[in-house]
Design goal:
By secondary structure, the protein is α+β, with helices and mostly antiparallel strands. It contains 2 helices and 5 strands. The protein has one domain: MutS, DNA mismatch repair protein, domain I. It has a 5-stranded mixed β-sheet, covered by helices on one side.
């Protein structure tokens, strides 16, 4: 397990758009960008954004949760869909 300064991250589901409250810079952010190359950092929102197609939410959540668990970070979910 990798040690990090962050203990939790918020995943906001906005229907097809997911927001991930993770800093733009840092070791975990670099690994996140490698694991999820389609993710883009939204300066205005201050978070990473990813588009997931309807019907794949369970898979996307599982992938995100597995990534953060491997990095020792808990995930909290906010559903705005």
């Amino acid at each position: 397990m990798t040690s990090t300064t962050s203990k939790s991250v918020t995943l906001t589901k906005m229907c097809e758009l997911h927001g991930i409250a993770l800093p733009r810079e840092g070791a975990v952010s670099a690994r996140f960008q490698e694991a999820f190359p389609a993710a883009q950092y939204d300066e205005a929102a201050g978070e990473w954004r990813m588009v997931w197609k309807k019907g794949s939410y369970a898979e996307s959540n599982a992938r995100l949760e597995a990534f953060f668990a491997e990095n020792g970070i808990a995930v909290s979910h906010v559903n705005k869909c």
